[in-house]
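Please, structure for the following, as tokens.
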Amino acid sequence: MEVELDGFSFLILAVLVGGVIAYAMTRGSGWRGLAGKYPASAPYTGQLRRCGTFQMMALDANQSFPVRFAGGIVSVGVTSDALYIVAPSLVRFLFPTIQLPWVAVASARPFEAPGWVQPVGEPVALLQVQVQYDPGFSGEFIELETTAPKTCIRLPAYAIADARSHLPLS
């Protein structure tokens, strides 16, 4: 039995599959839970920093699905009150901006991480991300754990360097 898809049917199938994957990413990564509890009350007006690598994972055993966003797709901004986690505008309806108050960060731990994706340059567009996997690449990262919903966030230390005084570093 051979099935052929015309262009329109293929497009519909691709959108459906992409939607299921994106939905799983928002649930398992913890993004949906954090965005629901800590939605951005106002747009971030400072300078956003692109994270060469950004990882988020729900710590609830029923929903855990670690998601790594590479190549500067996720940007962060810091204020004296909160960490802003921002996705590209094209996918913001799935990944709304999170305004995570510092008081919701239960712990913060710096670590060295070898083998993460190394950014080659700034992304030109959402789908034109320049990255390379280099097992020898290492850098300083910060692991944040939130209180509720319990979520683990790993991001480059340079992205939140201005906020170190707000972090409960261990």
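The chain has one domain: 8-166. The radius of gyration is 17 Å.
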